[in-house]
């Protein structure tokens, strides 16, 4: 499965309903699981972004669907990147020509 890192910003609506955020996180974990993915880690951040999520999914299309479904609820905006593990990174580097 591919690994993804998502930076999360709360919307105005998300901040107004911040006390419901843990329940929304639990619902997101269940949604990920129902689509063959996993929300592996969640971190509250202090700075430009409000949270960071590390997830795994079978493909980018599945992750896109998940993020669109969650984003459509109006509580967060996400910025997501495909991530490579150290082992994957080493394999990529080893395969470079020259």
What do you see in this structure?
- The chain is an alpha+beta fold.
- The protein has one domain (2-93): 2-Layer Sandwich (Alpha-Beta Plaits).
- The chain is 41% helix and 32% strand.
- It is elongated and about 55 Å long.
Low-confidence stretches: none
Our count of helices gives 4
Strand % is: 25-35%
Nearest-integer average pLDDT = 97
CATH A-level architecture: 2-Layer Sandwich
Count up the domains.
1
Distance between the termini: 29 Å
| Helix and strand run | EHHEEHEH
**Largest sheet composition:** 4 strands, antiparallel
Shape: elongated
CATH superfamily grouping: Lrp/AsnC effector binding domain/regulation of amino acid metabolism (RAM) domain
Task: Report the structural category.
Answer: alpha+beta
Q: What percent of residues adopt helix (DSSP H or I)?
A: 40-55%
Tell me the Rg in angstroms: 15 Å
CATH class: Alpha Beta
| CATH topology-level name | Alpha-Beta Plaits
Q: What is the number of strand segments?
A: 4
Question: Can you tag this structure with a few keywords?
Answer:
4 strands, Alpha-Beta Plaits, alpha+beta, four-stranded antiparallel sheet, 41% helix, 98 residues
State the gist of this model:
The chain is elongated. It is 41% helix and 32% strand. The chain has four helices and four strands.
Write the layout of secondary structure elements.
Blueprint (H helix, E strand, L loop, with lengths): L1 E9 L1 H5 L4 H14 L3 E7 L6 E7 L2 H12 L4 E8 L2 H9 L4
Antiparallel strand pairs: 1-3, 1-4, 2-3
């Amino acid at each position: 499965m591919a690994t993804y890192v998502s930076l999360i910003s709360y919307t105005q609506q998300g901040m107004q309903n911040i006390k419901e955020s843990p329940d929304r996180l639990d619902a997101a974990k269940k949604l990920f699981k129902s689509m063959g993915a996993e929300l592996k880690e969640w971190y509250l951040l202090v700075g430009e972004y409000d949270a960071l999520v590390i997830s795994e999914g079978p493909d980018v299309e599945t992750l896109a669907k998940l993020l669109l479904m969650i984003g459509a609820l109006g509580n967060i905006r996400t910025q997501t990147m495909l991530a490579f593990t150290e082992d994957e990174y080493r394999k990529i580097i080893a395969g470079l020509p020259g």
